[in-house]
Design goal:
7-stranded mixed beta sheet; globular; 60s Ribosomal Protein L30, Chain: A; 4-stranded mixed beta sheet; Phosphoribosyl-aminoimidazole Synthetase, Chain A, domain 2; homodimer; alpha+beta; 9 helices
Chain lengths: ~325, ~325
């Protein structure tokens, strides 16, 4: 551990100012706020996600993974609405056990992600906390006026699709917490990597503006996020387990113990997109079911396995109570 | 304490959805992100401030005061740049000791402030934390394209002005922590109220777009925030203690013990505006000094008392180290 101590001003100058250098409106982080110039013809999409140490990530997670998940969980929200990333602000509450080397690795990954996703740090707030590390990012993106994809546009008859593969991140987290073990190191590393470094589906989201009737990102689990589309669209989703795309690693875990089906479908942290659209939609996604009317539906989503309707499956995903 | 328990979804629906009802782009908090329609001819000003329980406010502070400070510290940043408030997002990390009644009072004050400042909740994130209450608000406002007031425009010869009175909030905090006592209950209540319920100077900020050469809000103390204007503008500020506007309550504390001058000038949390402009600027603010060149200046700001230059005064304001 480094014993170097930096003031708030020095910390911002050393770690965060370089992340704002390429965005003129950040005003070199020297003002009270950032300035985003008028972008005629574009609507702004804005989203806020908060990650708390010990709740949304593990204290032992590498700083690069924490940075990637903090930023990409927001980018994934932009992707769901079809927005191009533009700028973000970050409020970070830093406890004493987080040292400068940890923060340097964290900032380095933000820099990498900024280049990969073409987004810039525009401002933020750096404060001390006696509690866990708390990272709150607000990301803004743009869509041509009136073209954002919402959750509310699905209709009965629409096909249901997902990008990528489902369930990997939830299994990765189980591996990290020791609740699951795998002898296959390649599979193990793959699943953990899917938890640590999710991919925000920006390009696909942009393509879908013209094609999807509804879209959401899968942060709280496929069944819950698809369920949210159903609730606001007034539809009932029927999906077939056999159609849900699984990675080889996840497939192997499931084949070894079928009980993992529930975690795969409701575990969360996938940051893939779930969308609805015409039955014959083609693109980098997989058809998993069909939207029906809500008539006689007992829950927002129904899962079938080998054509048989499964009994009610916990679909609430990750939820805290107060 | 209430024993009622709510899920995250229920909490958002009951407390935060009503705060978003009047903003169509909030999409009833039912989407992944909010949608801010194109506002042709307007630049967007965006700011993020984070408040941590036990760091930026006391656990014993009333929920209404916490809400007011969380939102108004951001509104004050908008005011400094001359922006009209538009929308905000809020990431709130809630510990177990904060109950539903506390949160209801918190949300009620946000509602009051939304009406007073004409701003709307557009989205956010509600999460659990094992640590202190952590509130991060990102506020957005609008200015006519190119008309935002920055910190960097001050020139030698400019007058230096402040709104309201200085030092009240810092003394209010001393009263709350028992480091200062006052027999005058009216003065005591006034100073605490200035800490709990600062006024964001939105109207004055809008007027100043055309008049001020530079502006900042006083969050970290007059000397530090004025010093930041000096640093980015390349000027040296000379202010006269006798000109600094004090409330009767603060004046009485100072007259009883002159050592409070330093706290008054550097204590922070005023959320007044400090600005520079022509020597004969008139408005709801008070002239406190003049901008000079940086030649022979040993620090960004110099304070004179009865015409005599005071020895170096701690002007760093509130700053943490890591």
């Amino acid at each position: 551990m480094s014993s170097e101590k930096l003031s708030e001003t020095e910390l911002i100058k050393r770690l965060f100012l370089p992340l704002a250098r390429n965005y003129k409106g950040a005003l070199n982080l020297g003002d009270d706020a950032a300035l985003i110039p008028d972008h005629p013809g574009l609507d702004t999409v804005i989203t806020t996600d908060c990650l708390v140490e010990g709740v949304h990530f593990l204290s032992t997670d590498p700083p690069a993974a924490v940075a990637a998940r903090a930023l990409r969980s927001n980018l994934s929200d932009l992707a769901a609405m079809g927005a191009c990333p533009h700028v973000y602000t970050m409020a970070i509450s830093i406890p004493g056990h987080i040292d400068i080397r940890w923060l340097e690795a964290f900032a380095a990954q933000l820099d990498t992600d900024q280049r990969a996703y073409n987004i810039h740090l525009a401002g933020g707030d750096t404060v001390a906390t006696p509690g866990p590390l708390n990272i709150s990012i607000t990301a803004m993106g743009h869509v041509p006026t009136g073209s954002a994809t919402a959750r509310s546009g699905a209709s009965p008859g629409d096909g249901i699709y997902v990008t990528g593969t489902i369930g990997d991140a939830a299994l990765g987290l189980k591996l990290l917490t020791g609740q699951l073990s795998l002898s296959d190191d390649v599979a193990r590393d793959f699943l953990i990597d899917r938890f640590h470094f999710p991919t925000a589906r920006i390009e696909t989201g942009i393509t879908l503006r013209e094609q999807a009737t509804a879209c959401a990102d899968i942060s709280d689990g496929l069944l819950r996020d698809l369920g949210n589309i159903c609730t606001v669209s007034g539809c009932h989703a029927v999906i077939d387990w056999e159609l849900v795309p699984l990675s080889p690693a996840t497939k192997a875990v499931y084949e070894n113990d079928n009980a993992y089906m529930e975690l795969i479908l409701s575990g969360g942290d996938d940051y893939e997109l779930v969308l609805t659209g015409p039955e014959d939609l083609h693109g980098p996604f997989t058809r998993i079911g069909t939207m029906n009317s809500t008539e006689n539906a007992k829950s927002p989503t129904t899962v079938r396995k080998n054509g048989e309707v499964l009994a009610y499956m916990k679909s609430s995903g990750y939820e805290h109570g107060w």
